[in-house]
């Protein structure tokens, strides 16, 4: 299964903490998930136990992988050789949403929601047609979104969220 997952063009990765009850030495351990994308021929999800959140876990598991890796921007995925990193717009949206003042409708959240709705309308297309439509319809909107983010002078939580989006 690992070899099959490494043959994919696009993979998703994430990690989460948990407590191993009989492990008295560690307060928390990590479960890493490596998964094929939604449109892959075979759905493959591989969970890998890791005693830490070290980037050595994805580096070892994804050794020789040369496709696209979609993740949440955690630094443990940085500097993985041969891969092209893909940002998670849902993570970006959540950080921007959390940074907005209470009872305030954020332009950034509204823009993200519009992008999600447009992308959802393409779900029934073939991979090739969806790719072409994303280039035509979504790419210009994403470029404007990131240009808007780059134009902001933001501090505090909003500054952190905008920097996350731009990075």
Describe, in plain words, how this protein is organized in 3D.
The structure is a single chain. This protein has helices at residues 2-6, 56-61, 89-99, 107-120, 127-151, 156-166, and strands at residues 10-18, 29-36, 45-50, 68-70, 84-86. The chain has two domains: 2-86, 2-Layer Sandwich (Nucleotidyltransferase, domain 5); 89-166, no CATH class. Helix 3 (89-99) runs antiparallel to helix 6 and helix 4 runs antiparallel to helix 5. The relative contact order is 0.11. The model has no long low-confidence stretch (mean pLDDT 89). With 167 residues, it is an alpha/beta fold. The longest helix has 25 residues, at 127-151. It has a five-stranded mixed beta sheet with strand order 3-2-1-4-5. The protein is globular.
Q: In which order are the strands of the major sheet placed?
A: 3-2-1-4-5
State the end-to-end CA separation: 32 Å
Put simply, the count of helices is 6
Rounded to the nearest angstrom, the radius of gyration is 18 Å
Tally of strands: 5
Averaged pLDDT, please? 89
Topology order in helix (H) and strand (E) letters:
HEEEHEEHHHH
The structural class is: alpha/beta
Short description:
The protein has helices at 2-6, 56-61, 89-99, 107-120, 127-151, 156-166, and strands at 10-18, 29-36, 45-50, 68-70, 84-86.
Task: Provide keyphrases for this structure.
single chain; five-stranded mixed beta sheet; 167 residues; 2 domains; alpha/beta; Nucleotidyltransferase, domain 5; 6 helices; 43% helix; 17% strand
């Amino acid at each position: 299964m690992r070899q099959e997952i490494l043959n994919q063009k696009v993979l998703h990765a994430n990690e989460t903490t948990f407590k191993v009850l009989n492990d008295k030495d560690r307060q928390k351990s990590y479960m890493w998930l490596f998964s094929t994308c939604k449109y892959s021929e075979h759905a493959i999800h591989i969970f890998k136990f890791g005693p830490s959140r070290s980037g050595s876990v994805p580096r070892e598991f994804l050794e020789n992988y040369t496709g696209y890796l979609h993740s949440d921007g955690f630094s443990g995925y940085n500097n993985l050789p041969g891969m092209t990193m893909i940002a998670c717009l849902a993570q970006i949206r959540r950080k921007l949403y959390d940074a907005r003042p209470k009872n305030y409708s954020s332009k950034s959240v509204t823009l993200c929601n519009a992008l999600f709705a447009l992308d959802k309308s393409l779900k029934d297309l073939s991979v090739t047609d969806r790719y072409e439509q994303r280039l035509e319809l979504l790419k210009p909107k994403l470029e404007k979104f990131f240009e808007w983010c780059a134009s902001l002078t933001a501090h505090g939580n909003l500054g952190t969220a905008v920097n996350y989006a731009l990075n």
